[in-house]
Specification:
The complex is a heterodimer of chains A (102) and B (289).
Chain A lengths: L3 E3 L4 H6 L5 E6 L4 H16 L4 E6 L4 H6 L7 E6 L2 E7 L4 H7 L2
Parallel strand pairs in A: 1-3, 2-3
Antiparallel strand pairs in A: 2-4, 4-5
Chain B lengths: L1 E6 L3 H12 L4 E5 L23 H15 L2 E4 L2 E6 L5 E5 L3 E9 L21 E2 L2 H4 L7 E5 L3 H11 L4 E5 L12 E3 L3 E6 L3 E6 L4 E3 L2 E4 L6 H8 L3 E2 L2 E2 L12 E3 L10 H25 L1
Parallel strand pairs in B: 1-2, 1-6, 2-3, 6-17, 7-14, 8-9, 8-14, 9-10
Antiparallel strand pairs in B: 4-5, 5-6, 11-12, 12-13, 15-16
Helix pairs in contact in B: 1-2, 1-6
The chains are: A alpha/beta (102), B alpha/beta (289).
Chain lengths: 102, 289
């Protein structure tokens, strides 16, 4: 599946109301380590339809980033049934992310 | 521009430099401080040294061996390592800046997390290990840098233009030489707050309101560079593939920083592999160009 781009307005519908597990990559365009995470996020998205994969630019969707207390990027959160189930701070191994989506 | 820049001059870094240099590549090794191997009184389980050899002797012999082969070996402390737009690596030391096509991290292992209560609880919620990555979240806020050496001052300099105030906390160690920043030398009891970090409490009972604390104790270690470059780390170790590559293209790691056996033989093997892998990486990049 392709990656969904999130903003302040579509977060509720795309993440919180989604019935499948959702991975959200909180990133910024100026963040070097985030660029290392990007291809991994794309790979995870392409591998399965069992979950949804989203990217959230913390400068664009600042209200959401603030709401979830994002103060370090990349932060990757997994949501299940509208709840934040798991959070990973920093560049994270692909396996750990796909395990969290199960 | 160097073909290979290596941080660390222990058995892993020097071994990597020998293999890269013998492949006719330009190699720079940067090192500072005491290597773990120098503390070994006698190494008597390393192949070929009948009667053993002192760690300090093996260490200095290694550096001499690399220099004799034409490797540049400089005693300069690395403060920062970043990838630039052309996918090369810029390494800043106190003395200068160097650019390399590849980077090998062989710094040995240093504990990344300080042993202070609350560090784990507030990681990503006020505790950070990278000023250049996370400074932006602390615009006009009060931040602390935990440390007392050049690395701490360098992190403070990154934050100075963004944060409202920058204070240095040495956690009981002597104050660094600076007139730019307020320095607090008391021993830290704990980091406290609610969902986010709000306070640094000292053992003497005083406390300071902070929104963020950047960990920069001692000199920057391999895991610190890894965080800044976006390399996957497990605990305090850099994760590598069999060819010693990391998830970041052109960056390799070897020796104690990758975990496993903390032995010279393992460091030497990984160094050799990292040196060869760096050369192969440059070759394949050259082919594409």
């Amino acid at each position: 599946m392709s990656v969904t781009i999130l903003d302040n307005d579509n977060f509720e519908k795309e993440v919180l109301q989604e019935t499948k597990p959702v991975l959200v990559d909180f990133f910024a365009t100026w963040c070097g380590p985030c660029k290392m995470m990007a291809p991994v996020i794309d790979e995870i998205a392409a591998e399965s339809d069992a979950y949804k994969v989203c990217k959230l630019d913390v400068d664009e969707a600042d209200e959401i980033a603030e709401k979830y207390g994002i103060m370090s990027i990349p932060t990757i959160m997994v949501f299940k049934n509208g709840e934040a189930a798991k959070s990973f701070v920093g560049v994270t191994d692909k396996q750990a992310l796909t395990d969290a989506l199960k | 521009m160097y073909d290979v820049i290596i941080i660390g001059a222990g058995p892993a870094g020097i071994s990597a430099s020998l293999y890269a240099k013998r492949a006719n590549r330009s190699v720079l090794v940067l090192y500072s401080g005491e290597s773990q191997i120098e503390k070994a009184h006698l190494i008597d389980n390393y192949y070929g040294f009948k009667g053993g050899i002192s760690g300090a002797q093996l260490y200095s012999d290694g550096i001499e061996q690399a220099k004799a082969l034409g490797v540049e070996v400089l005693n300069e402390e690395v403060l920062n390592a970043v990838m630039n737009a052309s996918m090369n690596y810029e390494i800043s030391t106190k003395q200068g800046k160097y650019e390399g096509k590849t980077l090998i991290i062989s710094t040995g292992n240093k504990r990344l997390k300080p042993d202070i209560k609350g560090v784990d609880d507030f990681e990503g919620r006020g505790i950070s290990y990278c000023a250049i990555c996370d400074g932006f979240f602390y615009r006009k806020k009060n931040v602390a840098v935990i440390g007392n050496e050049d690395y701490a001052l360098s992190e403070a300099d990154e934050l100075e233009h963004i944060a409202g105030s920058v204070r240095i906390f040495t956690d009981g160690l002597p104050a660094p030489e600076t007139e730019k920043y307020e320095v607090v030398t008391g021993k830290i009891k704990e980091f406290s707050g609610d969902a986010k970090l709000h306070k640094i409490e000292l053992e003497d009972g005083t406390s300071y309101d902070v929104d963020g604390a950047f960990i920069a104790q001692g000199s920057a270690g391999g895991a610190d560079f890894a965080k800044k470059l976006g390399i996957v780390i497990n605990g305090n170790n850099i994760k590598t593939a069999d060819d010693m590559s990391t998830n970041v293209p052109g960056v390799f790691a070897c020796g104690n920083i990758t975990g496993g056996l903390l032995q010279v033989c393992k460091a030497v093997y990984e160094g050799a592999q990292a040196g060869l892998s760096a050369v192969n990486y440059i070759k394949s990049k050259e082919k594409k160009e």
